[in-house]
Amino acid sequence: MIEIAVVGEGPAEETFFRDVLGPALAYRQIFVQPRLIPTSRHGRGGALSRDRVLRYLRNTLRERQDLYVATFFDLYALDTDFPGWSEAQAIADPLVKAALIESRLAEAVVELAQCRADRFLPHIQPHEFEALLFSDTDRLVEIDPDWKSAATRLRSIRTAVASPEHIDEGPQTHPSARLHALLRPRFRKVLHGPRAAAQIGIERIRAECRHFGEWLARVEGLGPLKT
Fold it and tell me: Which of 124, 164, 204, 210 could in theory staple to 134 by disulfide, Cβ–Cβ 3.0 to 4.6 A?
């Protein structure tokens, strides 16, 4: 059995890990532990400051030597003191930018935790979780019958770029902003996001979203860790 703790930003990602990603990996005997970073006595998720993230990842990696740890953080609005953020600002392609930040994050975490490098699998999603939902906009609008009036406009947003992960990160045009602007009843990330991802299906998402797909392939290729 292989266990991997996947650390996300908030409850929508947590549900996605549990209800969509987890079942897709379980048949390979890879079991996902969804996790959020505590931000207060009663709060979890969000506020992904560099120090809080590094401390939590270090502690999680030190829990058990037979546990893999991964991240699933949005590139959009990532904290500016995040490892690699400043260096990545010179890169135009969001997939390359995310990969650089992942590399720098891995270096920082492995050094801090003093763990095997292969136990940590960082993922920075270009530009955010909602980008995955543009993998199949026709399936997305099936979540609510009233959303079908937005199908053509959503489809045009998707076809205007190379992939869902290339939808830009402007304040009014990043993926979640587009969904909020076009969908009535209003798109609610925690309620609709995981349901839409399940409707679209993990195989369609990985085919459309190369960066996500490459990370998922790494997870699928994991072998048991020996303590």
Answer: 164
How high is the pLDDT of residue 5?
98
- Please measure the distance between the N-terminal and C-terminal CA atoms of the chain and give it in whole angstroms: 13
Other CB atoms within 10 Å distance of the CB of residue 135: 25
Indicate whether 28 and 140 sit together in one domain. no
Both 35 and 95 in one domain: the answer is yes
Q: What DSSP string runs through 180-227?
A: HHH-SSPP-HHHHHHHHHHHH-HHHHHHH-HHHHHHHHHHHT--PPP-
Q: Which residues pair with 6 in a beta bridge?
A: 34, 70
- Per-residue CA distances from 149 to 42, 134, 142, 154, 176 (Å): 40, 16, 11, 10, 18
The range of the structural domain enclosing residue 175 comes to 129-205
Per-residue pLDDT of 28-68, as tens digits, reads 999 999 999 987 666 677 778 999 999 999 999 999 999 99
Cα–Cα distance for residue pair 210/163, rounded to 1 Å: 8
Say whether 91 sits in a helix, a strand or coil.
coil
Predicted pLDDT at 44: 74
Mean pLDDT (the chain) is 96
d(CA 150, CA 38): 37
